[in-house]
Each structure stands twice: as structure tokens, then as C-alpha cells.
Design goal:
Blueprint: H1 11-21, H2 29-43, H3 48-56, E1 63-67, H4 75-79, E2 84-88, H5 92-104, E3 110-113, E4 129-135, H6 143-152, E5 154-163, H7 171-177, H8 187-196, E6 202-207, E7 212-214, H9 217-225, H10 233-245, E8 247-249, E9 255-257, E10 264-270
Helix pairs in contact: 1-8, 2-5, 7-10, 9-10
Length: 277
Amino acid sequence: MPLRRYQDINWNLLWQQAHAERSWHSKGATDWNERAASFARRTGQSVYADTFLALLKPEPAWSVLDVGSGPGTLALPLAAQVRAVTCIDFSTKMLHILADRARQSRLANITTFPLSWDDDWRGHGIVPHDLVIASRSLAVADLAAALRRLNEFAVHKVAVTDRVGSGPHDPDAFAAVGRPLDPGPDYIYTVNLLYQMGCPATIDFIRLEETARYRSLDEALSRYQWMFQDLDEHESTRLREYLRSIAASHGDGSISLHPRHVPTWAYISWHPDCSRR
Ligand SMILES: C[S@@+](CC[C@H](N)C(=O)[O-])C[C@H]1O[C@@H](n2cnc3c(N)ncnc32)[C@H](O)[C@@H]1O
């Protein structure tokens, strides 16, 4: 049947198809547990959180639900600005790092729940919050269901970030290794689906133009390896050569990387009332 109207496009189905065909796969809780420490170290130094919070503008009296909170990239700075923060994540390792950091910073208004997107949140005592965020954590099988769920648990505002193009995956690294990169669906599906759900969204872009610095080429290599599943020896050698080609050495033995690719995230926010009207 020819498409005649914008409403004939099934954005959730398109999203599911692109999700199934992409060249990388969603990580499970075990994978995220393994990555938790290095992810926490790296994102602790990024400009990402400051930019996200500047766009978010939360009110001091608000409660915040952070879905896929990770090690507290946003929950920790947010806890100092709002009444209370509830964090959901299926990686217990991420939540342990978050709780340790909260203790060290004497933040007593964060509660964590080791839950997945698909679990029964209400059954575990999660109630609607003033603000709901899902930062870089929309790794779900059914996007429409996830967006409806965010709306259901939000009173004043929902804000998510979603990949633009390949997001954090560096296309030049894939080309160097010799693997195809099909990054899967990005933010444009989310924005269109929201529009169809009656939720016109505000969109901003967070460009991570920062220069990453590593103690050694080995450290940079292990940082880049997460993009690929099971690199063999030849692929690892090719990735190392690529990193060498974009590295600048410093006197103390450390290196900085200067890839052409700028990881970019779309910051998408909307009022949760939309799909309830
Ligand atoms: C890229 S990290 C983002 C962490 C943090 N929100 C940030 O922006 O730095 C993705 C997080 O989502 C969590 N996650 C991924 N899939 C999930 C799922 N199905 N249910 C719950 N958490 C999930 C992971 O454990 C991880 O902590």
C-alpha cells in the first residue's frame, strides 16, 4: 500500500527493523557490570553532564527519576540541585559505584533500584516523579512502550538523549578494523514517534568535542575495544595502528586522540501530558 500520509509511517516498526539490523548489539547487565568502572572513570571527566544539566534546568523542589542512571553521571550532580533522585539501572555494579560516590559526597537524597526497563516499576514502589530522564540509555526493544512508560512516570517533564548518527561509535575505527558499521536507528526515529504520539519535542545537540587523554596507547586501545565484539588479533593490530595515526604524544608518556568523528547526542525533551490527553 503506498504511503499517502505522514501518519501512515509506522515509526516504531521502522525503529525495530533498524534496531534488529544494526551492526552492534545491546549489552546485557553482565556486560555493563564489566564496563562499569571504566565507564564511570571516563564519563566523570566529560563535558556531557554539564551540558545536559544546563539544558535540563530542573527546579529545586522537584523529584527526579533517572532511568539507566549508570554510575550517576547525572544523578550525582542533580542530587545537589533537586529534592530527591531515584535511580533505576539493571547493572548492580553501576549502582554500587553510584552509591559509593553519593556517600563520599554526603548526598543522602538518592535511592537506587536494580531494575530493568521491562520490570514492574510500580510493583517495586516506584511512583511518578516531577522529572524523568533517560540519558544515553534508550537501549530498548520497543521504543513506543519505553516512551509511554517515561510519560507514565513523569509529572512535569521528560528528557532523554539519543544518538545522532553513529553516536559514540567512531566510523573511522570501524573502517580501519575492516568491519561494517550500521549504527541502527538514531534520534530522528524517536522525535518522529513522539510527534505521532502527540508529544512535540524540543531538540538540542550535545557535541562532545573534547580531546580524550590516556596514559598509554594500550589504555586507549582498551577504551576503543568496547565498540567491537570479540576483536581477533589482526583486527586489534589494525585498531592499534588507527589509534597511533590519530594520537599525539606528550612528554610524560601519555597520549591524546584526535579522531575526525565528533560523538553527538540529541537532547530531546517534552511535556508528559501529551500522550494522556
Ligand atoms: C551508556 S550508559 C548511560 C549511563 C548514564 N545515564 C549516562 O548518561 O552516563 C547506559 C546505562 O543504561 C543501563 N541499561 C542498559 N540497558 C538497560 C535496561 N534494559 N534496563 C536498565 N538499565 C539498562 C546500563 O547498565 C548503563 O548503566
